[in-house]
Amino acid sequence: MTDKIKVGDYLVVQRQKYTKLQRFTNLNTVVNLGKDQVELRLAENHPYETTFHLVPKQERGKRIYTLDALSTPSEIRNLKELLIKESGNDNRNIIDDRQSQALSTEEILKLREECESSSEVIGKLVENSKSFATKTEYSQEKYLKRKEKKYFEYITIRRPSVRLLADIYWRLDPEKVLGVRFDTLSQIISYSGVCSVGNYLLYESGTNGLLPAAMMNSIGANTDGNLVHMHPGNVAQKQALLAMDFPAEQLARCVSVNIYSVLRHFYQAKEAENGEKNAELMKVEEIAVATEEPAIVEQDVGINGTNKRKLEETDVESAAIEAKQPKIDRQKQTWELDNEAATNIMKEKFDSLVIVAKEHPYSILKALLPFVKSSRPVVIFSTSREILTECYVDMKTEASVTYLRITSNWMRQYQILPNRTHPDVTMSGSSGYLLTGYTIGN
C-alpha cells in the first residue's frame, strides 16, 4: 500500500460533501460528477488527500475538466469573506417573484464559459441580484452555499476507508448493504469482538463486500487473525474488500466460500476419516434450500444416452492405460482450494459468528453454531424485528446461546454552526436490528 495515487487503485472522489467510489483503471479514466466529466490522468503519483482545481477543457458543448493540484487547500477562496459586505435584519420584505436576478439563463451560461473560476461566476450572480444585500447573513450564506455547490471547482481524492465506503453505499441505496448503516456496522464489529488474534466466521448475502472489509480491517495486517467469509452464491461480492487495498498477505487470510459447498466438503471429509455416514450432511441440504442460491458442486461425468455408451466402450481401454501409467491427480480449482483452507479453520473452530442475511437466518445459524467455541459472541443482523424475535425464542428453547438481546440503533446527526446547532431536518430512521448472545458448551 502506497501513499500516492496510482493506476489500479480505488479512489474516493469528494466534491464538497458528495463522495463517489471510482476505480482508476487506466490513464483515460473519467469520473462523472453530475453533468461534469473529470479526467483523472493528472492525479497519478499525487499523494492521497490532495485537493485539485478543475480546469475546463476547450470543448464546446461539453463540461470536461482536467486536474491541477493545489499546493495547499487554503488557495480555495472563502466566498463568505469576499461577497458578504452588508446584510439585512430580516427577510420580511423579500418577495420570491423570480425577478431578483437580472442576468438571463443564456447570460449565466456564457459567464460560465468566460470566467476562469467559479468564484467569479458567483460574484457576478451576487452583483446582479436585487435582493442579496437585503437578506440576513444566514440567508446570504445559504445562497452562497447553494451556488457554490453548483459551481464548485475543486475535488479532493481520498483513500477508501470503511467509514467512507459505508456512507457511499448507504447514500446510493441502503439495500446495497442490506440496510447496514455505519453506526450499525460499528456495533456488529464491537459485539463480535473481532481483533488481531483468532478465527472469525461471517455469513453475508450481499453487502458489496462491506462486512468482510470491515472485519478484515479490524483484524489488521501481519497478524494471526483469519476470516472465513461464507456466502450463498458462486461468486462473493468483494468490491469494498478490494477497494480497501489490503496487503496481499492480509487479503489471503480472508477465505470466501459458498456455504453449501464448504459444509458439504467438511462433512464428506469427516465421513472419509470416520468411515461412517454423518447425519449432519443431510442438514446441509436445508442450507441450500434456505439460501435459495445455486451451489457449487463437483461435476460428475454424464452416464445417460451417448455418454453411457462411450463410457462402457472405453472401460477396458482406460483400465489398460491406468495399468501402464501412474495415476495423475487433476489440478484443483480455486474454489476447491478455498474449501480446503476454510475446512482446516473450521476444524479449529471460531471465536465469533456474524450473520447478515436477507434470508431467514435461523437454519443458517443452526448449521454454523457447532463451529463456534464455547462462550464466544454470536451476532445476527436483520431489518425485521419479527424475524429476530423468532430466532430469539428458538434459541431460548434450545439453550444453545445465552445472554440474548435484541437491540436497534437510531443515529441522529446534528448541524453544528454558530447560533444554529440543531438536528438535521432529514435523517434516516432505524438501521435494522441486532440479536446478540454468547454460545454455551460448544
Kindly name the structural category: alpha/beta
CATH class (first level) name of the largest domain: Alpha Beta
Please indicate the percent range of residues in DSSP E strands (runs of 2 or more): 15-25%
User: How are the strands ordered across the major sheet?
Assistant: 2-1-7-5-6-4-3
- How does the major sheet shape up? 7 strands, mixed
Detail the poorly predicted runs. 294-328
The total count of strands amounts to 16
Count, helices:
15
State the separation between the terminal residues, measured CA to CA.
39 Å
> Rg, please?
29 Å
Percent helix among the residues?
A: 25-40%
What is the CATH H-level superfamily of the largest domain? Vaccinia Virus protein VP39
Q: What is the CATH architecture assignment of the largest domain?
A: 3-Layer(aba) Sandwich
InterPro entries: SAM-dependent_MTases_sf, TRM6
Family: Belongs to the TRM6/GCD10 family.
Subunit structure: Heterotetramer.
Function: Substrate-binding subunit of tRNA (adenine-N1-)-methyltransferase, which catalyzes the formation of N1-methyladenine at position 58 (m1A58) in initiator methionyl-tRNA.
What's the short version?
It is found in: Nucleus. Heterotetramer. The chain has 442 residues and is an alpha/beta fold.
Tell me what you see in this structure.
This is tRNA (adenine(58)-N(1))-methyltransferase non-catalytic subunit TRM6. Heterotetramer. This protein has 442 residues and is α/β, with parallel strands linked by helices. It folds into three domains: 71 residues, no CATH class; 62 residues, no CATH class; 206 residues, Vaccinia Virus protein VP39 (Rossmann fold, 3-Layer(aba) Sandwich). It is built from 15 helices and 16 strands. The strands form three sheets. It has a seven-stranded mixed sheet, with helices on one face. Strands 10-9-8-11-12-16-13 form a seven-stranded mixed sheet, with helices on both faces. Strand 11, helix 14 and strand 12 form a beta-alpha-beta unit. The longest helix has 19 residues. The protein is elongated. The two termini are 39 Å apart. About 8% of the residues have low confidence.
